[in-house]
Amino acid sequence: MLSRHCKRWYAIFTKVNYEKRVFSSLNAMNFEVFLPCVKVWSRRREELVEKPLFPRYLFVRCALTKEAYLAIKKTVGVLKFVGYDGIPTPIPDDEIESVRIVLNKANDVEGHPFLKVGDLVEVVRGRLKGAKGYLIEIGKKHKLIVGIEMFGRAVSVHIDASMVRRLEPYEV
């Protein structure tokens, strides 16, 4: 079942926030590992930080022998291989390469929290830091239009998505 001689990519599902630890551990065992990351705005640090593009997932390329399978599965933080009916499913090389190309060639790839029209948002950086308003429109290239109430009137502001965060209902 697991005795394969050609190297293929497999997705690994990890514990929460274990992606980088698993990456380091598998790298130390001489596996080819890919952990695609993007820069996202951290509310806590108030700066851009690097986070996994696919939270809790990373990719390993190997000939999936029984030994390789067990070594990966026993790595601290690894929960399972992604697959069907308990059998790891290989990922086509071109899909991994597409992710690499996007991350390497597109300078403006950033992860953003899922925002939708009508969300209450807060500006977290820039000249409008601290202002709160409602998301009116989502434009191209991560540009948003936010309606901010000032002195009983609403004004709309064009702003980059990385400069806002969605407010949770308990924060209102």
3D architecture notes:
This protein is an alpha+beta fold. The protein has two domains: 8-105, NusG, N-terminal domain (Alpha-Beta Plaits), CATH 3.30.70; 120-171, SH3 type barrels, CATH 2.30.30. Helices cover 18% and strands 40% of the residues. The chain has three helices and 14 strands. It has helices at residues 19-28, 66-73, 93-105; strands at 8-14, 32-34, 37-42, 47-52, 57-62, 78-81, 83-84, 87-88, 90-91, 120-123, 132-138, 143-150, 153-160, 164-166. Strands 1, 2, 5, 6 and 9 form a five-stranded antiparallel β-sheet that branches. A hairpin with a 2-residue loop joins strand 7 and strand 8 (87-88). The protein is elongated and about 70 Å long. 17% of the residues are buried. The model has no long low-confidence stretch (mean pLDDT 83).
Q: List the quaternary state of the chains.
A: single chain
CA gyration radius, whole angstroms: 21 Å
CATH topology of the largest domain: Alpha-Beta Plaits
The largest β sheet comes out as:
5 strands, antiparallel
Shape: elongated
Beta-strand fraction estimate: 35-45%
How many independent structural domains?
A: 2
CATH architecture of the largest domain: 2-Layer Sandwich
* Residue share in helix: 10-25%
Number of helices: 3
CATH class of the largest domain: Alpha Beta
Spans where pLDDT lies below 50 across 5 or more residues: none
- Secondary structure category: alpha+beta
Q: Name the helix and strand elements from N-terminus to C-terminus, one letter apiece.
A: EHEEEEHEEEEHEEEEE
How confident is the prediction overall: mean pLDDT? 83
- Kindly report the name of the CATH homologous superfamily of the largest domain: NusG, N-terminal domain
Got a strand count?
Answer: 14
